[in-house]
Amino acid sequence: MHLMPDVAEDTVTNTEPVYPTFGPPRSMSRKPRVDTVLADAVDIAREALEGYDGDIGEHLGTTADDERVVTHRFAAHVPGYRGWHFFVTLARAPRSKMVTISETGMLPGEGALLAPAWVPWRDRASAEERIRLDAIAAGEDPAKALEAAGFGPKAVEEVSVASTERPVTKDHTDKAKQARREAKRRRARQQAARRKQKKKSAGSNTKPDTES
Question: Where is the composition biased (Basic and acidic residues) (predicted)?
Fold first, then answer.
């Protein structure tokens, strides 16, 4: 009796990827080559910067951004822009020798003078300033709020938006929280007193006149 082979055991599975006859796909992450036509167009790139203030310095080099896209860099001698440089991006169409100006501008280099990082107001403001503004928003006396927080009456004169560089200590933060809680309790008592006064006034207005 002829036995059929076990296909599941005898079949060999090929785990290698199978490509068409033209081979595996090419990687698209290769570095673009510097286009010679665009790289030689230094004069065109320099002329594109004539509208900028300051002096255009020496040519610093070229960078290939993409196929037929090249960026030229020039030194920038502009007051207030230490460490910056001009850039001009050039491009051309396939099979064309015509150079097109795509973009111009200035970019910071190493050691360039930059604006400081932005810091939120909550991190810049001192505890005195926050208490003062909270008291003003609640319609209360800032001097009393600061004095209740332990800063003293002179704090009102010293506090300003410009003087927010003083470090906020944990003690000041705790005092500020306590002052805000006390301000909330005072507002609650004032609101309760006003509601009580309104009820009392409404009751006196509806009371029948017993005098004859």
Answer: 167-181
| CATH architecture, domain 36-108 | Roll (3.10)
Decide if 124 contacts 165 (C-beta within 8 A): yes
Do 78 and 42 contact (CB within 8 A), yes or no?
no
Count of CB atoms within 10 A of residue 183's CB?
Answer: 21
Per-residue CA distances from 94 to 69, 100, 124, 134, 141 (Å): 11, 12, 55, 65, 74
Task: Kindly give the interhelix angle for 127-137 and 170-206, rounded to the nearest 10 degrees.
Answer: 10
Find where tokens 């470090």 sit. Answer: 167
Beta strands in 49-155 (DSSP E): 55-66, 69-77, 84-91, 100-108
Helix (H, G, I), strand (E, B) or coil at 43: helix
* Domain chopping of the chain, boundaries: 36-108, 121-201
Least confident stretch, 27-31, 77-81, 191-195: 27-31
d(CA 51, CA 127): 49
- Angstrom distance (rounded) from CA 83 to CA 51: 20
3 state DSSP class of 140:
coil
Question: pTM of this prediction?
Answer: 0.45
